[in-house]
Amino acid sequence: YKIIHKIATSRHFKRNDGHKNEKLSIRLDDLRSEWIRNDRAESQFDMLIATEGLSDQDLLDLERQIFRLRAELLSIGDVDETLITEANEVEAHHTHLTTQSADLEKASVDLAELVEELKRDVSGKFNNAFKDINDQFNHFFRLMFGGGSAKMKIKTHSIEHIVEELSGEVSELEESRQNDEPLQAGIEIELSLPKKRINSLDVLSGGEKSLVSIAALFALISVSPPPFLVLDEIDAPLDERNSERFAHLIKEFAHKVQFIVVTHNRTIMEVADVLYGVTMNEDGTSKLLSVQFGSPEVV
């Protein structure tokens, strides 16, 4: 029995010695690896010193700085987890705002491109329409005056001239200067009457100004006809011959525009389809009468 016990005890110690040897072998391998890393680090450090040209005093200063930084880290102590959480939240919010800012900048660029595209489109359509209106204006002007010519021009002012006249809104004027866009201040009319040396509206008579207005009005109607048009005694300054020309225009355009005309001119009344009149009875009350041409009845 004693022999068996000794054998078991011997085997137990042998196994323990095997485990210890295995641990020592692993530890020895770790030390060898660490020695190799340290040797490499030392070699790299020596190369860095040689490359940077550091002196012993420089190395001493760096060592002191390392000790100082370590002391500062120790004085800080443990980092509060709440601060880390708050920092992460602030960083996430900053990232979100940065993304939104980038989106807004992109939207601003896209909007500016859209505005420029719309401006080009509107400018093109305006120029085409203005040309058509100008052609029609010259046509109706010659028709109303029996000759001559007329032309509409966009009235523009220089920035300097407007700044002299206006005291405010200088920033808008400067912006227009930078964008090289003319300031459209209205329409000028250049005209030439037959057998007269007149090229300005200011020297025309009341009847002639009315004819120019009628020519401009029907030029607009011919390019973009409205469903109906109300004219309040526009023919008042016209003589009989010009009233006939005006009546002819109304009759010509009546198939696509409904005209409601307030007039006392018999020549204009003759081309109307329906006449409405207001009379006063003996008792002082007003009475509305209407006459439809083509029908003998008076309503």
UniProtKB/TrEMBL annotation:
<feature type="domain" description="RecF/RecN/SMC N-terminal">
    <location>
        <begin position="177"/>
        <end position="286"/>
    </location>
</feature>
<protein>
    <submittedName>
        <fullName>Chromosome partition protein Smc</fullName>
    </submittedName>
</protein>
<dbReference type="InterPro" id="IPR027417">
    <property type="entry name" value="P-loop_NTPase"/>
</dbReference>
<dbReference type="InterPro" id="IPR003395">
    <property type="entry name" value="RecF/RecN/SMC_N"/>
</dbReference>
<dbReference type="Pfam" id="PF02463">
    <property type="entry name" value="SMC_N"/>
</dbReference>
